[in-house]
Amino acid sequence: MANPDALNQQRASNRLLQPTVKSHLAYTLLCALVMMVMFSLLRLALLVYNREMILDTPASTFLEAFANGLRLDIRLVMYLLIPLLLALFSVRAMAARGFFRLWLTVASSIALFLGLMEMDFYREFHQRLNGLVFQYVKEDPKTVMSMLWYGFPVVRYLLAWAVGTLILSMAFKGADRATRPRGPFSGGTISTRQVAPWYSRIAVFMVCLLVAVVAIRGTLRQGPPLRWGDVYTTDSNFANQLGLNGTLSLIAAAKARFGEDRANIWKATLEQPLATQTVRDMLVLPQEKLVDTDTAAVRRDFTPPAEKTLPIKNVVVILMESFAGHSVGALGRPGNITPYFDKLTHEGLLFDRFFSNGTHTHQGMFATMACFPNLPGFEYLMQTPEGSHKLSGLPQLLSARDFDDVYVYNGDFAWDNQSGFFSNQGMTNFIGRNDFVDPVFSDPTWGVSDQDMFNRGLEELKAREGGKPFYALLQTLSNHTPYALPTPLPVEKVTDRGSLNEHLTAMRYSDWALGQFFEKARKEPYFKETLFVIVGDHGFGNEQQITEMDLGRFNVPMLMIAPGMRENSVSVTTPWAPRSTSCRPSWAAWAAIPCTSAGAATC
Question: Do residues 314 and 591 make contact, with C-beta atoms less than 8 angstroms apart?
Answer without folding.
Answer: no
